[in-house]
Write a structure and sequence with these properties.
Mean pLDDT: 89
Number of domains: 1
Radius of gyration: 14 Å
Number of strands: 11
Structural class: mainly beta
Distance between the termini: 36 Å
CATH superfamily: Peptide methionine sulfoxide reductase
Low-confidence stretches: 1-13
Shape: globular
Strand order of the largest sheet: 5-6-10-9-8-7
Order of helices and strands: EEEEEEEEEEE
């Protein structure tokens, strides 16, 4: 079973919210870049170490950068490899960058940003 996605292009009006790094308050992304995966833009999973993770999925995160080698091991999204993602400005761990393993998968990439690592304004 593949990942079903739908990009949200606009929320309309002035309702767009900014997501900022909890450590340095730098801009990470905005609500108009939310990405629905399997019908949701908010996700929760427990990692192999038993840690509960709640995060938003985004099409793009200009304030985040992936670092390290990606892996498919323990991916919460079958068909996608993940890499840890960090704040471009302060290096705070924000979540993960996901890359499609197959060139035919859509989206080709997306971001999972931990809810407790961003403030919303």
């Amino acid at each position: 079973m593949g990942v079903v996605f739908k990009g949200i292009q606009s929320l309309g009006g002035n309702g767009v919210k900014g997501f900022h790094c909890i450590q340095c308050l730098s801009f990470i992304s905005s609500s108009d870049l939310f990405l629905k995966l399997n019908g949701a833009q908010r996700h929760s999973f427990v990692n192999p170490e038993g840690i509960y993770c709640e995060f938003y999925s985004f099409l793009s995160c200009p304030g985040a950068v992936p670092h390290g080698r990606d892996t498919e091991q323990d991916s919460w999204f079958p068909g996608y490899a993940w890499t840890p993602a960090f704040c471009v400005f302060c290096g705070n761990h924000l979540g993960w960058h996901y890359r499609a393993v197959s060139v035919t998968s859509r989206p080709m990439e997306f971001w999972g940003i931990l809810m407790d690592q961003v403030s919303v304004r």
